[in-house]
């Protein structure tokens, strides 16, 4: 059985660890609130942009764009795929990173000719350790998603798509649906289905008609680049919020486990201390009795 000193040292160690996990919980909570606030400030712009893309298709249903499947329907595209993978820079976030890796592995099993574009140190280390080639690693941290970084990622992927080096582009990220539920998902970034931008609105009125210069296709392609950038930015922020939420959950579980360990150690410490006190009392009592017997024998 451990001594009281060993148990006290163990209790002190658990309390120190609990301070760290509690601090990490508070930091993750603050980061998540700030990221959600920044995303909420940008969403109205991209919602309006989506509305304008819908307006273009209402104005001209036959418009063709390289970012959309033809009006006749989806065509099989079996060339090289691109996949943007968004992971965290570190662990201590439960199953957050592993869920993303599983989605990527499913995509690689379904289509082996897939080039990976990775954001996050965890993903880079995982693919390197498992000898899975990475086409490009965006080396800036996943801890600070910004519109500028989303634009750099989007421009690089779309340039490859425009050159015909990629037939499809997917993005694997964690969707932050609400504070209680997150989901790692694979979404096709381009080409889009036209149904995603169809509207239930009636025919346009005369005041809603616009003239597009230099052409409606040029305007649509420029708008789609901005829309895709916004989607990537939203995925980066969603993943970041999901990471912080997963870290909050993991740290909260760690705090609860620490409380349980401290409770068990406290009971164990009290038992050991009580046993030590009982042993000392027994020794004193036995010594007193022995001394008393000795004095009785020595009496005349």
Could you describe the 3D structure shown?
The protein is an alpha/beta fold. It has 5 helices and 5 strands. The chain has a 5-stranded mixed sheet, sandwiched between helices. Strand 2 (114-119), helix 3 (121-129) and strand 3 form a beta-alpha-beta unit. Helix 1 packs antiparallel against helix 5 (216-298). The protein is elongated and about 130 Å long. The two termini are 48 Å apart. The model is unreliable at 201-207 (pLDDT under 50).
Task: Report the C-alpha radius of gyration, rounded.
Answer: 32 Å
Distance linking N and C termini: 48 Å
β-strand amount: 5-15%
Q: Indicate the structural class.
A: alpha/beta
What is the average of the pLDDT values? 82
Shape: elongated
Poorly predicted parts = 201-207
Order of helices and strands: HEHEHEHEEH
Proportion in helices:
55-70%
Strand segment count:
5
Separate helix tally: 5
| Neighbour order of strands in the largest sheet | 3-2-1-4-5
User: How many strands, which pairing sense, and closed or not: the largest β-sheet?
Assistant: 5 strands, mixed
Would you kindly provide a brief summary of this structure?
By secondary structure, the protein is an alpha/beta fold. It has helices at residues 4-59, 96-110, 121-129, 147-162, 216-298; strands spanning 81-86, 114-119, 136-138, 168-178, 181-190. The longest helix has 83 residues, at 216-298.
């Amino acid at each position: 059985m451990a001594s009281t000193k060993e148990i006290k040292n163990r209790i002190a160690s658990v309390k120190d660890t609990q301070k760290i996990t509690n601090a990490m919980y508070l930091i993750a909570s603050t980061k998540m609130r700030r990221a959600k606030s920044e995303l909420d400030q940008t969403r109205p712009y991209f919602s309006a942009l989506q509305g304008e893309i819908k307006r273009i298709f209402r104005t001209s249903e036959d418009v063709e764009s390289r970012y959309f499947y033809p009006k006749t329907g989806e065509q099989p595209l079996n060339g090289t795929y691109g996949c943007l993978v968004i992971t965290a820079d570190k662990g201590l976030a439960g199953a957050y990173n592993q869920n993303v890796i599983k989605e990527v592995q499913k995509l690689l099993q379904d289509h082996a000719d897939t080039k990976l574009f990775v954001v996050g140190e965890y993903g880079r280390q995982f693919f390197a350790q498992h000898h899975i080639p990475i086409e490009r690693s965006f080396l800036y941290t996943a801890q600070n998603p910004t519109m500028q970084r989303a634009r750099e990622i989007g421009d690089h992927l779309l340039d490859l798509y425009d050159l015909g080096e990629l037939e499809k582009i997917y993005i694997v990220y964690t969707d932050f649906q609400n504070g209680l539920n997150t989901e790692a998902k694979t979404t096709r970034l381009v080409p889009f289905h036209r149904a995603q931008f169809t509207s239930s609105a009636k025919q346009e009125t005369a005041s809603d008609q616009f003239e597009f210069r230099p052409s409606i296709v040029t305007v649509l392609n420029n708008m789609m680049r901005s829309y895709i950038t916004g989607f990537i930015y939203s995925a980066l922020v969603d993943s970041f919020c999901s990471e912080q939420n997963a870290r909050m959950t993991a740290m909260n579980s760690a705090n609860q486990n620490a409380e349980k360990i401290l409770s068990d150690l406290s009971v164990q410490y009290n038992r050991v201390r009580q046993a030590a006190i009982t042993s000392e009392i027994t020794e004193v009592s036995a010594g007193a009795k022995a001394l008393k017997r000795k004095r009785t024998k020595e009496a005349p």
